[in-house]
Amino acid sequence: MTVPAVAAGHPATAAAGAEILAAGGNAADATVAATLVSCVAETLMTGLLGGGHAIYHDAARGTVENLDCFVSVPSGEGGAPLASLPVRFGDELVDYAIGASSCAVPGLPAGLDALWRAYGRLPWPNLVEPALQVAREGVTLSKAHASCLAMLAPVMTMREGATMYAPSGALLGEGDLLEQPGLVAALQLIRDEGAASVYTGSIAASLLELITARHGSITAGDLASYAVVWTEPASCSFVERRVLTRSRLSRVPETLERFDPAGGADALLEALEHEATIDGHTTNITVVDEEGNACVLTSSLGLGSGDWLPGLDLHLNSMLGETDLIRAPLRPGARMESMMAPTLVFDDDGLELAIGSAGGTRLRTALVGVLAAVLHEGVAPQAAIDRPRFHPAGHVLNAEPGVDESWLARLEARGREVRRWPAPHHYFGGVSAIGRSGAGADPRRSGAVSPG
């Protein structure tokens, strides 16, 4: 049996999920609570005004469903021109497009509400309380999150963000306390008004006021009409297992189907050699409960627009500025594309692995590599996650320390440019996984595991 556990991108996030499981909640309850905590503890990666995708396995019914709560395209006219913001991402200088007009219609709150209503069993206020507690106490910045903040400082210290991320004029560093007092008020509204607060309630009113003032495109009708979508997952075969995940822009099923892990690094590189660019920031939560129910949820704000709701400290998403997600003309009301791929793996004995990853275009690389290590080689989830990674970006192969140096040299001899990173980095994704031999969470993003 897959072990009951919570694996997530931050110790507070994982602990919240475990707390809810201990209180009698199931995988849906724990995922909702953990995600709400991630919107406090991991605000460099996600937030309540973002979007996400989830997959849920109901063990008693034997069913699996995908939940699409990603952002949708607003219908408002034009909006202010997007502002270009160059951000150094390791050795890459990347131009992002931000501002209030980059904000798409948020879907994450509606997704959490839908997950709870479909599968949860504890009262909604109970699921909000752990996040409220973390918001009241503040969050100590880990080394990984402090490093990420230093990289994202140009956007995180814009406007209202400076009071949280550089309160004394200097950027917060490792060990400093990140205080976001407005999130207490925001979460109290979520507790009392439910997720509807973001769509027709108090948070919606605040969001629309800011959008109007800063010439964004979201309308009251966009918020009121937003709806999640439940779908059947994409299915593929990989090393004699049935893999259920998302397809479309994620490209995970297609990659698994053309990847033979017996071929090692060369085979993985060949399978991955498609669409290698950089996009926004995400986080992932994986939960398995004692009854065998499983949920994987990935969420994101993109980079973030650089705008926060006054008094609520909620960062607007920047999905309309994420060029990697715009593959066709934007149609008002339509879902935006996403590379997220929450995944469940089954063999003849049932659920074998629940796994997801953060990391934009790198999440596919991280996810496929860990899947191969666990399923083909029999490596435990944590050891598989800890392995050094590589990621192709056009002609350049990015490699963490520990990737086989003789293989990298052979690639260079064939004319490939290899960029050797000095240390493991959150660029290479953030995986959380729970399997039969244990659970694992990515140290590249301060990941943590709590027993279920």
Briefly summarize what is shown:
The chain is an alpha+beta fold and 452 residues long. The protein has helices spanning 11-22, 27-41, 108-119, 124-137, 143-156, 162-165, 182-193, 202-213, 220-225, 252-258, 264-272, 361-375, 381-386, 405-413; strands at 5-8, 51-58, 63-69, 83-89, 92-98, 139-140, 177-178, 229-231, 234-238, 241-245, 281-288, 294-302, 343-347, 350-358, 390-393, 396-399, 417-420, 430-435, 438-441, 448-451. The two termini are 13 Å apart.
Topology:
Layout: E1 5-8, H1 11-22, H2 27-41, E2 51-58, E3 63-69, E4 83-89, E5 92-98, H3 108-119, H4 124-137, E6 139-140, H5 143-156, H6 162-165, E7 177-178, H7 182-193, H8 202-213, H9 220-225, E8 229-231, E9 234-238, E10 241-245, H10 252-258, H11 264-272, E11 281-288, E12 294-302, E13 343-347, E14 350-358, H12 361-375, H13 381-386, E15 390-393, E16 396-399, H14 405-413, E17 417-420, E18 430-435, E19 438-441, E20 448-451
Parallel strand pairs: 16-17
Antiparallel strand pairs: 1-11, 1-20, 2-3, 2-12, 3-8, 4-5, 6-7, 9-10, 10-13, 11-12, 13-14, 14-18, 15-16, 18-19
Helix pairs in contact: 1-2, 1-4, 2-3, 2-4, 4-7
Description:
Helix 1 packs antiparallel against helix 2 and helix 2 runs parallel beside helix 4 (about 125-135). This protein is α+β, with helices and mostly antiparallel strands and about 450 residues long. It has helices at about 10-20, 25-40, 110-120, 125-135, 145-155, 160-165, 180-195, 200-215, 220-225, 250-260, 265-270, 360-375, 380-385, 405-415; strands at about 5-10, 50-60, 65-70, 85-90, 90-100, 140, 175-180, 230, 235-240, 240-245, 280-290, 295-300, 345, 350-360, 390-395, 395-400, 415-420, 430-435, 440, 450. The strands form 5 sheets. Strands 8-3-2-12-11-1-20 form a 7-stranded antiparallel β-sheet, with helices on one face. The chain has a 6-stranded antiparallel β-sheet with strand order 9-10-13-14-18-19. The relative contact order is 0.20. Strand 18 and strand 19 form a beta hairpin. It is globular. The chain contains 14 helices and 20 strands.
